Amino acid sequence: MSSKDYHPPDTANAHLDDSDSDLDIDINELDPISVSRPASSRRGGNIREDRRGAHIPLRSLRMGGLRALSNRSRGHGDLGRDRDNDAEDLHGLLHEEEDINQSNTKSNGRDDARLLRGHHSRRPSTEVLRNLGSQIRLPSFLSRPNSFDPQPVASGDPAPEEEEHDPASSRTVAVGNVQFARFPPNAVSNAKYTPISFLPRTLYNEFSFFFNMYFLLVALSQVIPALRIGYLSTYIVPLACVLAITLGKEAWDDIERRKRDAEANSEGYTVLCFEKPGGGSRLMKRSPKSRSSKSKRSPLVEPDRLSDIQEEEENAQGEGQLPASEVYEVIKKSRDLKVGDVLKLGKDQRLPADVIILKSFANEAAGTARPMARVSGMETLLVETVSDPPIAQSASTTADSPGPTATPGNSPSADAAGVGETFIRTDQLDGETDWKLRLGSPLSQALDTREFIRLRVVAGKPDKKVNDFVGTIELLPKGYMSYDPHIEDTTGSEASKSAPLTIDNTAWANTVLASNATTLAVIIYTGPQTRSALSTSVSRSKTGLLEYEINSLTKILCLLTLTLSVVLVILEFGQANYKPDLEWYVKIVRFLVLFSTIVPISLRVNLDMGKTVYSWFIQRDAGIQGAVVRTSTIPEDLGRIEYLLSDKTGTLTQNEMDMKKIHVGTVSYANEAMDEVASYVRQGFSLPQSAEPQLITPSSTFVSSTIGIASRSRREIGSRVRDVVLALALCHNVTPTIEEENGKTITSYQASSPDEIAIVKWTEAVGLRLIHRDRKGMLLQSVDSGKPVVRVRILEVFPFTSDGKRMGIIVQFLDGSQSSAASKDGTGEIWFYQKGADTVMTSIVAANDWLDEETANMAREGLRTLVVGRKRLSVQHYQDFRSSYQEASVSINNRDSSIATVVSEYLERDLELLGVTGVEDKLQKDVKASLELLRNAGIKIWMLTGDKVETARCVAVSAKLVARGQYIHTVAKLKRKDLAQDHLDLLRSKTDACLLIDGESLSLLLTHFRQEFISLAVLLPAVVACRCSPTQKADIARLIREHTKKRICCIGDGGNDVSMIQAADVGVGIVGKEGRQASLAADFSIEQFCHLTKLLVWHGRNSYKRSAKLAQFVIHRGLIISVAQTMYSIAIKFEPEGLYKDWLLVGYATVYTAMPVFSLVLDKDVDENLANLYPELYKELTSGSSLSYRTFFVWVAVSIYQGSMIQGLSQILTDVDSPKMVAVSFTVLVLNELTMVAFEITTWHPIMIMSLVGTLLIYLGSIPFLGGYFDLSFMMTVGFIWRVAAIGAISLIPPYAVKLIRRAVKPPSYRKVQGI
Known about the structure:
Distance between the termini: 78 Å
Radius of gyration: 42 Å
Largest sheet: 9 strands, mixed
Structural class: alpha+beta
Mean pLDDT: 77
Helix content: 40-55%
Shape: elongated
C-alpha cells in the first residue's frame, strides 16, 4: 500500500466536505508544550484545550491567513469553500498561539514570510509544505526522548552524543535513522589475536610448555659468568630461532585469517537512505539545539500569493500527502552496516546481520513474464464456488499491494491481504533443509517505502535462540495531520500504531533469501550480537597431541639430566683427593648446561618446519584441490582421529531432493521406467479436439478413450498412474515463479520443503506442469500440448506439521464448459488429497496388503517415503465439515485438538490409497565409500544435524552410516527421567546398535545422566543426533573429548557448525554453496566430504609417522652427544668441562646433521593406494605406537650404547684429553648419525640422497677450517681412518642387526601389506 492510500484512524472523523483532508495539520503540533503538562493543569478550565483536539486543514490555515490580512475573497473551486468560517477559527487560533509564545513572535514571523514570499520565482509545492512544517513545533509524541524526529541536524549543531548500548537490555531501533545508542560494528572476525594480545598470548602458550621453559632457564643461566660454558649465543640463538619461527607461523596464520575476514566483510549490500523531501541531508534524530528558532515573525502570506497556493493545492491533490522522506540507494560494505539500516535484498543473497523484514514484493520480471498470460482468465473460473476460502483478512491488511505485487502468481510477494511473503534457507544457521516462510509485518508491508522512517522497532536483548523472537513494530503519527473545526475530537492527536513481531518476521545472519522477490529489511543486531555469532564459541589456540607427548618425554629427559648431574657431583665428592674449586650447586648447574643437549632445542625447530612441509603437501595435492591449511600447528593430529562428528546438510548431502521411485499398488516405477509414467500421463491428460474448451477432472470419461485398444490391465494401470500424478501435482504448498536468466525465461518453484519441490518437478518431468498458484486456486498445464488441462479452486489447506507428519488439501475441480451458474450450484467435483509419512497414513487409508512392505523396501534404500491418498466429498459433506471446522477454529479451549478431531472425523477416514513415493536426498560425491573407509580405519562417526528425525534417519541409511539390518534405537521427545533410564538400560544390552536421538532428549540426558550417557554413547558404532542447536553440537564435541581423551574431528559447511568446529581438536570446514563461514573458522578447509579420507588416511597418517620418527631422531641426536659428554667428564675426574665447544656443538646440531635428519619428513612406508586399500593401517596410529614410552626408551638405549661406544673407544684408542680424541669421536659421531638416517629410510627420495651426500661433503670440506679443535695432521694418517671405521662399525652394526631380526620375527603392518 502506498502512502497516498494510507489514512490514519482519525481521518474517519474528518469533515466530508473538506477536500484537503490529506493536507491537514494537527493542532497539537502548534502547541505541544501545553499537552505535555500534568493532567491537573490541563483540567483547569482552559478553553484552548477543547480546540486543540480537532484538526485544522492546512489549506484553511494558509487561505484563512490570506483573507485576514487582505480582506479579499476569491473563489477557486473547493479552495473557496467555507472560507469565511474557517478564517475566524484560524484567526483565533493564531492569536492564541501568539499569546502563549510572545517571546517567539518575532522569530516565527520571519520564517513564515520566507515560506510564501517570492516575487520572481515560485518554489515547488513540496518545499513550501516542508518549510511550513519546520516552523511549527513538534507534537508531544515527538518531544519524548528516543522518539522519532524527522528533522535534520542543523549544520552548525553537534550531532547527538551516542551512548554505548547495554546488551542486557532491550533496544529501540529507529528505522532508517541514526541511533542514539552505539551498537557493535557488523564485522566478522575469526582471528585468534589482536595486535595487543598477540605477544602476551603466544609467549604464554610457548612457555607454558616445560620444553621451552627449560631452555629459557638454561639460556638465562649463561648470563652469569660462573655458569657460562662456551659462547653465549650457543644457547640464546637456538631459543630465539624457535620462538621466531613459532611466533612467525602463528602471525602468518592469523594474518591470513584476517585477510579472509576482510573479503567477507567487504561484500557489498544495497542500503536505502532517507532524505528530507526535496533534498537535503539525511534524516537524523534532532539535537535539542535544533528545536529552537531565532528568526523573526512576519505576515503569514502575502495577498498576491494566492495563485501559488492554488497551484500547490492542485499538485497536492494529484500526488497525495507529502511523503515523510525521499529514498535513494547506496552500496555499503558488510562491515559498514549499522543497526537501523534498511537493506534491499534479492534472491540467493546472504543476510549479513539479523534483520526484521519490513516489506517484500515480487520482482517485475516475474510479474510480467509471458507464461502468466495463460492464467488471465483464472479469476472468472474460480469465483462463485461452493464456499469462499477461509482466508482471514484483518482491517489493517486489506489494502492493495503496490507495484508488481498485485500481479497473479507472485506468491512470495504481497498478496491481496497485504502480507509480504518470502522464503529463506536456514541450513547455514540451524541445519534444517526446509525453507522457512517469512512475512513482513502488515504494518510495514502496507506502508510506502518513503514512510519507513516513521517506523520504530522494539527488540529484546541479543540471545542464542534462533527459533524464538519477541518484539514490536510501531508506526509513529505523521507530521502533517488533518483538522476540521466543525468536528470535535477529544483524542488530541493521532495515536501511534503498533503490531507484534515474531520469529516469522525475522531473518537471521547467514540465512539466504530463496524467493524471487525483493525484500526490504531493517538491521536490529550486528556483528557479535547476531544469533549466529552468539552461537559460536571463541577461537582458541590448538595444540597437537604430539606436542603434549613430546612435552612429557622432555620432562623425563630433564629428570635424567638432573639425575646425571647430581650423580657426577656426588662421585666427585667421593674421590680420595677431592679438592673443591667450585660450590657443589654451581657444578650441578654447569653439568645441567652441559647436558642440555639431551633436551634438544632443535627439536622444536625441526617439528615446526616439518609442519610447514606437511601443510605444503596438503595444499599442493592435486587429489584434493582447493584444500587450505588454516592452522598449520596440528597436521599430525589428522593421523590420530578416533571420533568424527559430521554435519548432515551440505556436508553429507547436497540438500537437493530427487524423486527416485513411485509405486502405484501393482507396479513400481524407477529410473528408466519413468518414461512409461510419462507415456501414461501424456495419454491421460490429452484433451479431445472439440470446439468447446474442456478441462480434466478425476472423473473425466473421455480420457480412457485415448488409450485405444490397450488391454484392460494396462488401462487400469494408466488410470492409477494418472490419478497419483494428478494428486502429487495438486497436494502441496509449492508456488511457481518465472525468472529471467541470460535472457531466457525459466520456471522455478518455491516451497518450505525441498521434498515438495522435488515431487512437483517430477510431475513436470512426466508431463504435468504447475504454471500458476495463489491462495484461491491452481492451474496445471500439459507439457505435451502446452494447454491448461486442470483448474482447481483451493477450498482448504492443512499444512505439514512435525506432530501430524502429513499435509492435505481440499480442491474443487472446474470444467471449462461449466457456466458460472453451474459452478454456483456446486456441480464441480470436490476432492480431498492427503500425503504423509507411512506411520500415520497407514491408519488413514483403506485396508490394503502392500503398503507396509513397499514402504519398508524404500526405507531400506534410504528413500524418504510419502503415502498418497484421496477422497471425494459431496457438497453436503463438505458443507458439514466446513461448519464444524469453523466452529472448532474459533474455540477458546483445546483449539488444536478440536480441529484435529473434526478433520479426522470428516476427512481422514478410508482414503483411497493411490501410491507411495520415494524421494532421495542427494548425497555428496563418494560419501558412502568415504564413510565406509573411515569406519574401517577405526573412526567412530557421529552425525549431528538440526534437521528432523525422519530426515536424519533416511540420510543415515542411504549414506551407509547405518549398516544394512543394523538396529536403530530412536529416542525422541523425551521428557521424563524414568523413561531416560529405561533407554540407557536398553542400550547397554545393544552396544552394536545405532542411536538416533533428538536435541530435546539429548538435553535431558546430558542434564541428568551426563557421564552415564556419554560413557555408553562412545561405545556405539554410530550415533545420529538431530534437532541439535549449534551450542549442543559444540557441547557434544567437548564432552567426547573430555571423557575419552581422544582426538575429535568435526566437519561442517554452515555457520551453525562453527562452534562445533572450533570446539574440536581438528576442525574441517567444507566450502558451502551459501557461505564460507565454516571454512574460514576451520583448521583445514576442503571442497568435498570425500576429500576428508585423503586428508586423514594419507596426509594425516604420513604427518604423524614422519613427525614421530623425526622427533625420535632429534632426541637420539641430542642424547648420544650427552652420553659422550658424560663419558668424557668421568675420564677427566668429573670436571664440568665441555667435550665439544663452540662451533662443534652448534655445527653438529645444524650444518652436519640437520638436513639428513629433516629429510625424514619426505619418507613414506606405503604408497597412497595401499593406504586407501588397507585403512586398518590408520587404526594402528590411534594408539600412538609410533611415539610411545616403549619406542622412546628403545631409542634412549640405542643412544646410550652408541654414545658410550663412540666416546669410550675414542678415549681408549687415543689420548683422553687431546685434539686427536676429539677428531676421532666427532667424526664417528657425524658419520654414525648420517648412517642411522639411511638405515631408517623406507622409501628413498632424491632430496634424501642429496642431503646425505651433501652433508658428508660439507663436513669433509670444513675439516681444514677446524684446526682449532682437531689435530689435522693426525687426520691425514691411516691410523685415524681405521680408528673411525672400527668405532663406527661397533656402534652401528649391533643396533641394525637387532632391527633386522625383529622385523623378521614380528614384521610391522606396512611390511605385511607390501608383501601382498
